[in-house]
Specification:
Blueprint lengths: L7 E5 L4 H12 L3 E6 L4 H9 L4 E5 L5 H12 L7 E4 L20 H24 L5 E5 L15 H21 L5 E6 L16 H13 L9 E3 L8
Parallel strand pairs: 1-2, 1-4, 2-3, 4-5, 5-6, 6-7
Length: 237
Amino acid sequence: MPGTETLKILLSGANRGLGLALSEYFIQNGHKVYALLRKRSPEISTLQQNYEKSLFIFKVDVTNRQLLLDAYRRIKERTAEIDILINNAAVHHEQEPSDLGEIDFSVYAPTLEVNAIAPLKVVEVFLPLILAGHKRLIVNITSEAGSIGNMRREREYAYCMSKAALNMASKILDNRLRREGIKVLALHPGWFSSDMGGGDAPITPRQAAFNVGRTILKDRHSRKAVYVDARGRKLPW
């Protein structure tokens, strides 16, 4: 369970679903959230009204490096450090995955840009603040869909490929940043109900956030694996 230390958490994709639920979870456990989002939702605005001293919102498109640099400067005016960075923003343009011969390749580049490339941009821009933090943890919200070893799907190429690419980026980052005392996790939150996950999922975003949040707030030195599920258990690449 989380301790009494107040952590400063940078979280992308915070306006709905898991990002919104994680923001609420961390705030209610005494931490501060610096939320990156492309557009406000009524829910995130209400949360900010209720916790104006713990939730700070910054509108930014995470695929745009210049906008990220602008957000970095604004956040640096509020804090000199970030303890935990959570790359949660993602897209899934294949809600009705097409079979071979019917694939819409126009969604591939945007999917890879948001799901695999943007997290690396966020890490690069905010690295100075992470280095100044105490927790020094980067969490990339991935999916079991990125596991080649467990792959059973016959469709959803773009989404699965993007998450596999994010897993690779996470491993490379962990190799590179370990010498700086930074731990990187590629974390699969489980299947939860959302615009992306659909309505048949067995758990809600709030339930997923509880499991994910507890795992993230554990002592980072106890986590040796990079690719894990919501309870911190190692997943096959």
